[in-house]
# Entry
Amino acid sequence: MLIVATDRVSAFDVIMADPIPGKGRILTEISTYWFKVMDAVIPNHLLSTRAEDYPPPCHKYAAELEGRSMLCSKAEAVPIECVARGYLAGSGWQEYQTKGTVCGIKLPGGLVESARLPQPIFTPSTKEEVGSHDINITFDQMVERIGKKLAEQLQAVTLAVYERARGIAEAKGIIIADTKLEFGLRGGELILIDELLTPDSSRFWPASSYSPGGPQQSFDKQFLRDYLLTLAWDKTPPPPPLPRDIVEKTRQRYEEALRRLTH
# Structure
């Protein structure tokens, strides 16, 4: 199976009309980096990122595929999005303000936006079709969908991957506030699939400017989301056009994440 990362970007489950130049190559390089790092924790689907290793019919597209594609082994996707949260942000912060919980998990009182949690938590969600919103579910609801054994395995591996990634990133000046992982079954073996710990699937904050009590600067597409929230847009297609400076500043954030993580 060949996965090609385009320069398209989505926000609020809507694909923007304006691409982010070079984004596909950046995501591929970051995913490849993390797949190699996490190989000691759990196997993954990556076989090669070199176009010369791809099946012969792909060779005539080598120039277009090089640097933005991955040859991967096939796996049966687990129908759950596995989220690890180490900080209180996004939908987690919104729920906490009204219920004191995140995806049904009770948290200590008095936490502020962007606060570091006492320990990382696992918050699964449904895996919906493109264009539909994933729905946060509890661990018990996940058990009902996929069984206790697989649910416990996903929880343990998700938190293990997050803990390892968080330590590596912090040493490079990046806080991984949360991340979303996807898994598959290959011959009964649980493996990582899709992308891994990229600015599209994670919240990356610069450690040097971290200040709990409000939103943080970021190296991910939160910058784009924040811009879109200033518009009178109902978060449904068609998306609004993106100004050139928003596109460029988003690209720069992706570039900075790549530079810090891989150098």
